[in-house]
């Protein structure tokens, strides 16, 4: 009998604790109901905003791709001014406008490379550098192109040391980039012009070792001779 009472007493204690805990939680909720609901609503709004932003980015990226597909033929035809400005009569939006409206999307980032290249061909190196420098897309080939593009602009301004380093960086972006040997060759030539013998020889030897059967490999010996004679 005594044992049974002890069991009942323990059971009652557990139930009392459960009830007490429930009422504490209930009272806490009632006391802070407004704050809790506001917090929940805020989280919900953040989630909704993220979803809407993601959908908008996806939609903008698709629009940028469609607009880019219409202007690329002008670029490929060498009509760089028309590619930059667009052709209103044909409803072709120019690269400049695509970058302005959709530059934060992946395809908008791609448009920056085409726009920068067009500026180079038109002789607007400052504008070209600006676009190369602003590229932040995920495509490794375009990342390398942006770095090499900046290097090319700096070469024209005789900022050879920075140009050489940017060419080196471009060659490091992706091992699969077929332009790597060309980037390294340009870096090496800049080092020769800077009278940096060891740097030039190191770059040329890398080409000789890792990039056989590339255009940069052939004719490399004359640059090695130039580097040796520094």
Description:
The protein has 230 residues and is mainly alpha-helical. It contains eleven helices and two strands, in the order H-H-H-E-E-H-H-H-H-H-H-H-H. The protein has helices spanning 2-31, 33-76, 80-85, 95-102, 106-122, 125-134, 140-156, 160-172, 180-193, 197-210, 220-228; strands at 86-87, 92-93. It has a two-stranded antiparallel ribbon with strand order 1-2. Strand 1 (86-87) and strand 2 (92-93) form a beta hairpin. The radius of gyration is 32 Å and the shape is elongated. The N and C termini lie far apart (107 Å). The model is unreliable at 1-15 and 44-55 (pLDDT under 50).
Helical residue percent band: over 70%
Please give the largest β-sheet.
2 strands, antiparallel
Give start-end ranges of low-pLDDT stretches: 1-15, 44-55
Approximate shape: elongated
Structural class: mainly alpha
Strand content: under 5%
The average pLDDT is 80
Q: Rg to the nearest angstrom?
A: 32 Å
Q: CA-to-CA gap between the ends?
A: 107 Å
- Number of helical regions: 11
- What is the H/E string? HHHEEHHHHHHHH
The count of DSSP E runs of length 2 or more, i.e. the number of strands, is 2
- Strand adjacency order, main sheet: 1-2
Oligomer: single chain
List the helices and strands and how they pair.
Blueprint: H1 2-31, H2 33-76, H3 80-85, E1 86-87, E2 92-93, H4 95-102, H5 106-122, H6 125-134, H7 140-156, H8 160-172, H9 180-193, H10 197-210, H11 220-228
